[in-house]
Amino acid sequence: MGKVSIPSIFHIFGALIRQDNRKITRFLFLFCLKKTYGMKLIGACIILLVFAGTKQLFAQNTLTGTLTARQIISQMQAQLSCPWSQETVDTFKTGNPDDVVTGVAVCMFANMEALQNAVAKNCNLLIVHEPTFYNHLDKTDMLEDNPVYQAKMAYIQKHKLIIFRFHDHWHRTVPDGIYVGMIEKLGWKTNQVDNSMLFFKFGEQTVGGFAQKLQEKLGGSQLRVVGDPLMRFTNVALAVGAPGSKSHINLLTSEFTELLVAGEASEWETYEYVQDAAMLGMKKAAIFTGHIASEEAGMEYCATWLKTFIQDIPITYLENGSSFWTVQKPLNE
Question: How would you label 154-193 residue by residue, b for 16+ Cβ within 10 Å and e otherwise?
Fold first, then answer.
């Protein structure tokens, strides 16, 4: 085979650049790394390879490196059915909102495990449902000298992580995003009796049997059940998260509700109310799933929702799971 001229090499490389960098690499090894073509030809190949890499890098930057955290939140606000309130916990908690976003991680809590997972996945924006600093308003004045807070903040600042809480408006939008995700996970959509996403009707069964099936659907959740496990029922009310005993009692007072499935409550409130109702012979029982288990699927749905209008930045759902473990059998020391 005769020698290939430098103009011919440029022509071939031009075609390959428009197709696939891997082809250019193969071409370089096949045609340039041979003594018969000389240093000039090798130099031409290297220049073209660098150009191709630069072109590909530029194309990637135009696709992904353009949106800031503030712009992403603005897009979210535009997609909601509810107006954005100025009185809200849905605010930036850490980081610079005007930093360019490399990836988005969506989860329930920005705990240390979630922060580390976000960094590993090159996500510098975390969209979370619950507080980051151990109180509803994320106030940190009482934590300034706390070693846990200091270490967590040091990690956040080192990796320039931006944390945004998305709680109030994800509940206020219609339909409520948390309930949408939970009902889908539980498979209860066909059991809804109205559009409230609060009331459901099932075939008659016992509380104990229902609890077993619910445990399987929620995986690692440790359910707490109040009331007679042999009580037969058909009607269920759902209360995710921690809306408070007033909300729980209102649902239980409804003539419809026989079983309440809730996230969490103080033991001296809803627990005691249901216990008294059962002892008085009323057909009432409650299953408490834990706060995270009752809402986490709603944040998984949030990640899916974000992907419908933010398509050029990687979006990852991070499962938090339970914050605690329980003693099922004696521990092996």
Answer: eebeeeebbbbbbbebbbbbeebbbbbbbbebbebeeeee
CA-nearest of 239, 254, 257 to 202 is 257
**Residue whose token pair is 């007072």:** 253
Query: Domain 177-289, what fold?
Result: 3.40.1390
Contact (CB, 8 A) for 296 and 184:
no
Summarize pLDDT for 193-207 with one digit per residue, the tens: 999 999 999 999 999
The 10s digit of each residue's pLDDT in 107-127 is 999 999 999 999 999 999 999
- pLDDT tens digits for 273-314? 999 999 999 999 999 999 999 999 999 999 999 999 998 999
Q: How far apart are CA 178 and CA 300, in angstroms?
A: 9
How far is it, in rounded angstroms, from Cα 5 to Cα 19? 22
Architecture per CATH, 69-173+297-317: 3-Layer(aba) Sandwich (3.40)
DSSP 197: S
The answer to whether the CB of 100 falls within 8 A of the CB of 68 is: yes
- Give the residue range(s) of CATH 3.40.1390.30 domains in the chain: 69-173+297-317, 177-289
pTM over 0.85: no
